[in-house]
């Protein structure tokens, strides 16, 4: 069946109706294009805009996370560096033999004679221990000064709590004989236990560290 449009019949339709008919056909064409072409494109555009917005928010979140991570990583390395410095000054072990070697080496460099070295029991403090030790030494006035200056410059913290000096003349030379009580420190990550519990362990550990007596 063929659909034919007879132009002569259309021309017989009053002009105002022809105008209305043309407007109706035009609106129907626009409606068809809008609903079948433009609406799906608008929906797709809204969907893509939403995806773009979500992607930007996710990117901002990840950027903030990376910034916080970089900051935290920098703080971690800084704290680790500080801890390494603290562990040099306050080791996690008593390491009395190494302490004895350091003090003896300083005595040899300063040309004083270390006559006595005796570590005392650990004394618990908050997050660290004090390790007192007693020394007795003899040497010249300036040599004793060089010795204590060397002790001050050691990486490991050694605090000379008190000392005494006695002058003697030996072979026409002024010699100083002295005793001193010094303290060094041991770092601990936990609260120290009661001193009564630590004493047996300290005595046992010190058996392998001979006391210097000359």
What attributes characterize this protein structure?
2 domains; six-stranded antiparallel β-sheet; 214 residues; alpha+beta; Alpha-Beta Plaits
Word description of this protein:
It is a single chain. The chain starts with 6 loop residues before the first helix and ends with a strand. Strands 1, 2, 3, 4, 5 and 6 form a six-stranded antiparallel sheet that branches. Helices cover 56% and strands 24% of the residues. It has helices at 7-12, 15-89, 96-110, 141-152, 195-206; strands at 113-119, 123-125, 128-139, 158-170, 173-187, 212-213. It is α+β, with helices and mostly antiparallel strands. A hairpin with a 2-residue loop joins β4 and β5 (173-187). α3 (96-110) runs antiparallel to α4 (141-152). Mean pLDDT is 76; it is low at 195-214. The protein has two domains: 14-89; 96-213, 2-Layer Sandwich (Alpha-Beta Plaits), CATH 3.30.70. The protein has five helices and six strands.
Shape: rod-shaped
Which residues form runs of ≥5 with pLDDT under 50? 195-214
Helix content: 55-70%
DSSP helix count? 5
The named CATH superfamily of the largest domain: Ribosomal protein S6/Translation elongation factor EF1B
Enter the CATH topology name of the largest domain: Alpha-Beta Plaits
Tell me the CATH architecture of the largest domain.
Answer: 2-Layer Sandwich
Secondary-structure element series: HHHEEEHEEHE
Strand-pairing-aware structural class: alpha+beta
How much of the residues is beta strand, in percent?
15-25%
**Mean pLDDT level:** 76
Q: What is the rounded Rg?
A: 46 Å
Number of strands: 6
């Amino acid at each position: 069946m063929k659909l034919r449009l007879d132009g002569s019949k259309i021309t017989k339709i009053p002009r105002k109706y022809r105008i209305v008919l043309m407007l109706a056909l035009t609106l129907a064409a626009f409606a068809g294009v809008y609903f079948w072409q433009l609406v799906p494109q608008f929906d797709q555009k809204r969907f893509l805009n939403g995806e773009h917005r979500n992607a930007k928010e996710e990117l901002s979140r990840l950027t903030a996370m990376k910034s916080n991570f970089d900051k935290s990583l920098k703080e971690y390395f800084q704290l680790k560096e500080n801890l390494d410095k603290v562990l040099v000054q306050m080791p996690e072990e008593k390491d009395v033999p190494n302490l004895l070697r350091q003090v003896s080496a300083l005595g040899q460099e300063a040309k004083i004679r270390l006559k006595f070295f005796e570590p005392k029991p650990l004394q618990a403090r908050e997050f660290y221990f004090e390790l007192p030790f007693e020394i007795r030494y003899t040497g010249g006035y300036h040599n004793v000064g060089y010795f204590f200056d060397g002790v001050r410059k050691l990486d490991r913290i050694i605090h000379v709590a008190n000392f005494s000096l006695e002058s003697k003349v030996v072979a026409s030379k002024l010699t100083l004989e002295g005793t001193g009580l010094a303290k060094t420190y041991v770092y601990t990550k936990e609260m120290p236990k009661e001193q009564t519990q630590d004493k047996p362990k300290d005595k046992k550990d010190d058996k392998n560290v001979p006391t210097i007596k000359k």
